[in-house]
Sequence to fold (275 residues):
Amino acid sequence: MCLKNVPGTNPPQEERMVISMEIFLYIFTCITVFMFGGCLGSFFNVILLRVPEKKDFVKTRSHCPECKHTLKWYELVPVFSYIIQHGRCRKCMTRIKARYLLMELFCGGGCLWVFMALEFFRPHQTIIGLLLFPVLVALSAEDIVKTEIPYWCSITIASLGIIATVLSLFLPSDVLWYEHLIGMLLISVPFAVFCYLGAMGGGDVQLVAAAGLLLGWAIVPSVLIGMVTGGIFGVIVKITKKRATICFGPFLAFGIAAGYLYGYRIIQMYSSLMG
Fold:
């Protein structure tokens, strides 16, 4: 008896090959997206370290800060080079800060999160997300280390917001062009009041204003997520008394990331629950 086309049996060889190819392409794309994010994370690390010292980060090649050894291309592969070299310079064996690895991991993971959540259903939103998430990681790292949010991060997010606003005039989008402007004004005004009262810094206000321009109405659940997670962390810190200063930037960044991917779903769920 021929079982080739009987339901419940193994699919034909051609179909299995197609499925295998699709799986391979998906895995390959995931790896490529992760490496893209890791490269951005490595580049942002250079910017965050060199700009405050007024060093050139465009023409000067990457090098070991201890022995000044110029790094080869195979010493700059995100994540893998750090692991293969056991976190040390190949020439002088000086230990490399874990910050480099963490930035590459989080930026790569953030980009992978964007791709797996959006894929390329709307390519322009996916591309903006792939650029947005590494910036959020970079500003979080800088806020943790220096308790300040770099201006270039807020400017970059605002630039992405302007691009998204223009694209919404011509391409299908969850956010209408005027909702981008509403989002910016809706959240920046109360945050400016908080800043005036000393509850948060000016960098936070700039960040939420830029994010509001990008997210539109989705900035509301974004800020709520950031405030709730930040509040929980603040309570834990107050109980344990391990740290006196709380950096709010990373929690805002997490809220913005969640809002970009799921903000309008959260709004729709809330609307349906309210009847």
Observations:
- The two ends are 57 Å apart (CA to CA).
- The chain has two domains: 13-119, 124-275.
- The mean pLDDT is 86.
- The longest helix spans residues 13-50.
